Amino acid sequence: MTKIFAYAIRDDEKPFLEEWKNAHKDIDVDYTEELLTPETAKLAKGADGVVVYQQLDYTPETLQALADAGVTKMSLRNVGVDNIDMDKAKELGFEITNVPVYSPDAIAEHAAIQAARILRQDKRMDEKMAKRDLRWAPTIGREVRDQVVGVIGTGHIGQVFMQIMEGFGAKVIAYDIFKNPELEKKGYYVDSLDDLYKQADVISLHVPDVPANVHMINDDSISKMKDDVVIINVSRGPLVDIDAVIRGLDSGKIFGYVMDTYEGEVGVFNEDWEGKEFPDKKLADLIDRPNVLVTPHTAFYTTHAVRNMVTKAFDNNLALVEGKEPESPVKLDQD
Ligand SMILES: NC(=O)c1ccc[n+]([C@@H]2O[C@H](COP(=O)([O-])OP(=O)(O)OC[C@H]3O[C@@H](n4cnc5c(N)ncnc54)[C@H](O)[C@@H]3O)[C@@H](O)[C@H]2O)c1
Predict the structure, then answer these.
(1) Going from the N-terminus, what domains does the chain have, and what CATH number goes with each?
(2) 49 C-beta closer than 6 A to ligand 1
(3) Where is the D-isomer specific 2-hydroxyacid dehydrogenase NAD-binding domain (predicted)?
């Protein structure tokens, strides 16, 4: 009987794992809550493939241990593959898949909700309510329909974000280094980032974290933006020079900042710091600001997305073990 073994299965993933298992009664599915390490690799012995998801590196030792346990077909439940030692994976003949698209709506919706909350000054109002201060002023909102929303990157997520913002009645403009023909026909694109900075009241980043995009939001780009701009980064921390954003918040140039991602997030996000010394002063300051909305990389974290991550990873792994073409193979020759 074909066997698939899954690592690091969280409680919120279990119902979707059971759902997949019930739909594939001829496959033996087993799992552990533990991460894949050189020590836990042996748990996969006897399996034909593994399903994984972790921020911990897939080191040469881990991959070797998995190969020693007889498994070289590995399906990620997430997108990112930078923590895999590709040279070793290639040497050992690994076949790998990922899930590049699981729910663009999850991330786009989060960006839209947070943008609207910033514009209505909801965090300030919530703080007043908690103190039983029920006065209106000076916590006045800005309507989304009055904003020009500038979207940088019109891929899977950017496009959904554009639709949601239009649903609110905003004027949407966009910039992408590769123009989408449909969007171009509809006249969304401006010619340059500078044009977008000049016109937009709300700016949302939906581009990948490639070297060319690191710190694309910096002192220089912020100086080109309108006063009272709202900036949204639910994409990747390194896209933003956070010190420049802090300067913009301090000077009053930036009306509000939405961040679901942060350059120093690894090892800090998705941990409970209650009662412990918080490890990042800058992040603590951002969390405390009334016009900054911080979430710990949870834009993707919805039932819809988690279901897709689990089921697509298992579908991919089954394709690999059956010698079929998986939906989303990962090329091991990464440049
Ligand atoms: N917060 C979360 O939970 C979460 C979850 C998934 C993805 N993301 C992030 O969201 C971002 C967008 O993901 P996606 O699936 O929409 O990607 P995508 O590949 O579908 O789209 C990215 C778009 O950005 C464009 N682009 C690249 N560099 C650019 C630049 N300098 N200027 C303008 N456009 C540029 C590309 O041409 C492409 O159209 C990525 O950074 C991804 O890592 C975040």
Answers:
(1) 3-102+303-321 (3.40.50.720), 104-294 (3.40.50.720)
(2) no
(3) 118-299
